[in-house]
Amino acid sequence: MTLEAKWTALADHHAEVGARSILSLFDAPDRASRFSARLDYADRGQGWFLLDYSKTNLDETGFALLMDLARSAGVEARREAMFTGQPINETEGRAVLHTMLRGQPDPALRAPWVQEAAATHERMAEFARKVRSGAFAGAGGAFTDVVNIGIGGSDLGPVMATLALAPYHDGPRTHFVSNVDGAQVSDTLRGLDPATTLVVVASKTFTTIETMTNAATVRDWMQAAGVDAAAQMVAVSSAADRAAEWDIPADRVFGFGDFIGGRYSVWGPVGLALMLAVGPEDFDAFRSGAAAMDRHFRTAPLEANLPVLLAMVGVWHAQICGYATRAVLPYDQRLSRLPAYLQQLEMESNGKRVAMDGTELARNSGPVVWGEPGTNGQHAFYQMIHQGTHVIPCEFLIAALAHEPALTNHHRLLIANCLAQSEALMRGRSLEEARAMMAARGLAGAELERQARHRVFPGDRPSVTMAYRQLTPCTLGMIVALYEHRVFVEGVVLGINSFDQWGVELGKELALKLEPMLAQGADDSAKDGSTRQLLGALRGA
Ligand code: F6P
Question: Among 216, 240, 229, 234, which Cα is nearest to 271's?
Answer without folding.
Answer: 234
